[in-house]
Design a protein that fits this description.
The structure is a single chain. The protein is α+β, with helices and mostly antiparallel strands. It has one domain: SH3 type barrels (Roll). Helices cover about 15% and strands about 30% of the residues. It contains one helix and six strands. A six-stranded antiparallel β-sheet has the order 4-5-3-2-1-6. The longest helix has 15 residues. The N and C termini lie far apart (about 45 Å).
């Protein structure tokens, strides 16, 4: 379900700046889109603060930032059992961050004269 937070298995074949540690993933994909993969944003407790990385409280697991600038599709089998569902306010912050990162809902930028 969109807004659910899942533990995600660490990447074994990481590249570049990808993390190899276990973390959480937030489902961004619409509940109406049923695929074998799911679109998620990864979380981090150590990434730099940013307007595009809303901070959320995971209860007894502490706070984390949702890295909306690291959206990816993963196979459902990479996700564990959901640990919680984001609040309405947290989902709004995620939606705002997605809009900023992907320029959704904004005026097209001019690239020429």
């Amino acid at each position: 379900m969109r807004g659910d937070v899942y533990p995600i298995k660490a990447l074994k074949d990481r590249r570049g700046h990808e993390q190899k540690v276990a973390r959480f993933a937030v489902v961004l994909q619409s509940d109406d889109l049923l695929l074998s993969t799911v679109i998620v944003a990864l979380t981090s407790t150590s990434c730099a603060p940013s307007l595009n990385r809303p901070e959320v409280d995971l209860g007894d697991r502490g706070t984390t930032r949702i890295m909306v600038d690291l959206i990816t599709a993963v196979d459902w089998s990479r996700l564990g059992e959901p640990i919680l569902h984001l609040s309405h306010g947290d989902l709004q912050a995620v939606d705002t961050a997605i809009g900023n990162v992907l320029s959704v809902g904004s005026q097209p930028r001019r690239t020429g004269p």
